[in-house]
Amino acid sequence: MTVRGWLLRYVGVCLAILAAALIAVWLLGGYVDLGLSEDGVIALIITIAVTAFLSIGLMGLVFYSGRSGADDKVIDPTGEVHRHRR
Q1: Which of 84, 60, 63 has its CA nearest to residue 74?
Q2: Strand partners, 81
Q3: Predicted confidence band of residue 1 (pLDDT cuts 50, 70, 90)
Q4: Which of 42, 60, 45, 77 is CA-nearest to residue 6?
Q5: pTM of the model
Q6: pLDDT for 13-65, tens place per residue?
Q7: Mean pLDDT, to the nearest integer, of 78-84?
Q8: For residue 46, what are the contacts with CB-CB under 8 A and spacing of at least 6?
Q9: Which residues on neighbouring strands pair with residue 69, listed in sequence order?
């Protein structure tokens, strides 16, 4: 599987799990006990979703960078270029 395909699959699975969890909590009435108004619950859900999207995206980019070989060339402070050995 290509790196891009792996990244897209990772992001898709994470988003599906997040959506399922938010919907399950909503359907089970988990937000009622918080004492928030409807606007507060919507703001809470949006905040959770945006935070999760950001973290999923950043972790996906870290994995993509590591698997694509972009991190193989490392420059130390003296200016010498080193290649990692695998």
Answers
A1: 84
A2: 75
A3: low
A4: 60
A5: 0.55
A6: 888 998 898 888 778 777 677 777 888 878 888 898 889 889 888 888 887 77
A7: 60
A8: none
A9: none
What is the signed CA dihedral for 43, 44, 50, 52, rounded to 10 degrees? -170
73 φ, ψ (degrees, to nearest 5): -95, 120
What whole-number distance in Å separates Cα of residue 41 and Cα of residue 27? 13
Listed in sequence order, the residues at least 6 apart from 20 whose beta carbon sits closer than 8 Å to its beta carbon are none
Look at phi and psi of residue 35 and say left if phi exceeds 0, alpha if psi is from -120 to 50, else beta.
Answer: left
**Residue 74 · residue 13 · CB < 8 Å:** no
